[in-house]
Amino acid sequence: MNAPRIPAPGPVVNNPVASNPVASKTVAAGPEASQAVPGAPQAEFLLRVSDLSVAYRHDGRVHQALDRVSLDVRAGETVGVVGESGAGKSTLGRAVLGLVPVTSGAIRFAGQDITRLGRRDRVALAAHLQVVFQDPDSSLNPARTIGSSLAEPLLGQRRPRAEAAAKVAAKVAAMLERVGLPAEAAGRYPRQFSGGQKQRMAIARALIVSPRLVVCDEALSALDLSVQAQIINLLLELRRDLGLAYLFIGHDLAVVRHVADRVVVLRQGRVVEQGSAAQVCEQPAEPYTRALMTAAPVPDPAQERARLAARVAELSAPPGPESPGPGSTVPGGRP
Ligand SMILES: Nc1ncnc2c1ncn2[C@@H]1O[C@H](COP(=O)(O)OP(=O)(O)OP(=O)(O)O)[C@@H](O)[C@H]1O
Ligand SMILES: [Mg+2]
């Protein structure tokens, strides 16, 4: 995937949270807001997506990628987004990040309407809302040192004075160490590192501005299984230590089940089911979710959709006379 980066935030601020009205409200909500019950006051939600629709125009045709999608993310919470290829998962993440225009509906962050922010407000918001994409190279400039790429969200295009530059360098070094890399990596180039190390750097770049919410779009999908496990642990640790919330978009349901508190299931741009990760993953109410949970991975998206549709039809059909008895145990509950 080669998605564009969200704009870098403005100049260094000692406490970007305190100096920004969006973040101040977020802080006021605090991590305890993650304990909020459904129906609690809006301020307790970090992100509220309400009836969101996004349509793409392509070759004179309109494709409805999201159709009245609603979901919430509370402070400190991880919400997983799953669904077949083309279900609209990335579109949802991109709409939250302001990377695709919204047709209708609303996106609120820390109580503020961010559905259609102007460039300047979007830049300010980037200090609180960040992204980690599947491909770390999309956020690391190959021609710049790691230190320079990590400093950019803090500095923008400014050339800092010596004292400020030293502060930023110290922050970069601390952030690199926080994500499990040596501080000396700052002086090296992305090509000198493995995929897993570069994903750690992309995470460091996202976190250096102290965001409250990080959209992770297939952030682990390009990594080997053993490296995935390490990055999952890192994301969980960072969440615990920094009180982060994640909107965690993923294909691998086992991974999503492991990291998410709640899971939202998308199909053809619509929410078909949402609930606690345990409930959605272990006792899915919808045939589509059950099909998704038991589907073997298929590399070709069209083939994946066709297989899922067949499985959903099978799971949705009322039990026929030839159905096996309750002793038959086939994954998904039906033959
Ligand atoms: N820029 C675009 N122009 C036109 N159509 C698009 C564009 N981006 C996405 N789409 C279409 O919108 C739908 C949703 O795409 P999206 O990338 O959000 O799916 P996804 O769930 O992230 O899929 P995947 O699991 O493959 O990443 C798809 O049918 C896709 O082809
Ligand atoms: Mg996607």
Structure description:
- The protein has two domains: 169 residues, P-loop containing nucleotide triphosphate hydrolases (Rossmann fold), CATH 3.40.50.300; 70 residues, no CATH class.
- By secondary structure, it is α/β, with parallel strands linked by helices.
- The two termini are 36 Å apart.
- It is globular.
- The N terminus and C terminus are likely disordered.
- α5 crosses α6.
- Strands 6-7-8-3-9-10 form a six-stranded mixed beta sheet, with helices on both faces. Strands 2-1-4-5 form a four-stranded antiparallel beta sheet.
- It contains eleven helices and ten strands.
- The chain binds adenosine-5'-triphosphate (ATP) and magnesium ion (MG).
- The site of magnesium ion has 3 residues, from α2.
As a percent range, the share of helical residues equals 25-40%
CATH class of the largest domain: Alpha Beta
> Span from first to last CA?
36 Å
Structural class: alpha/beta
Count of beta strands? 10
